[in-house]
Hints:
Layout: H1 6-29, H2 38-71, H3 85-105, H4 110-146, H5 154-186
Amino acid sequence: MPSVPFKSLWRRLDNKFTKFSLAVDEIVQDRNLLSVPEKVWTYFCYSVYLNFGIALIAFIGGIMCFTLGLYYSTFYSRINCENGLNIWVPLNNLIATWTGFFAVKALHIRWSAFVHLVFTATMTPLMMIAAVYATTQIPVWYEEQKMSRGGKDWGDWNAAGDMMLAICSYTIVILSVFQLYIYYKYWLPGGQTLRTRSV
């Protein structure tokens, strides 16, 4: 079997990627968020801002959850938020929601909406995983509290912290699903509608 030269293989791969990029660019250039009705647009903008604010709270809460969990871990058999899931996922979501500011403020840049769509679609399942993980940790910490060394009540505090992280994460998922629905209905090729909105 003859071997394919590396340059030829690279050229073919490069050509396919170029065709794919041009096809995506054609889709992006044909669409914008101006077709979103004004009332829905207002909700969309608020959801982007709220998503960013809650993601910031979740990120700071995840850091506090880990640092306090580490500091008071001597009373328990484990550390709260020890795997970093409640830190890195909200941080990535914070970056993803930050792109939403460009989507709502720079409508003339058509790629900003596409980037926000891709980041939101990527982060929504990950935020759901973080939410479910935080939810599963709540009963674990109530059980840990029963075995607390030194009679401290940090197990209850850890459970409350996990509950706060879970609520933030579920709220982010709901807001993200709403944003994805707006993209599906008013931006994506199958759902593009030709409505006008006063800007």
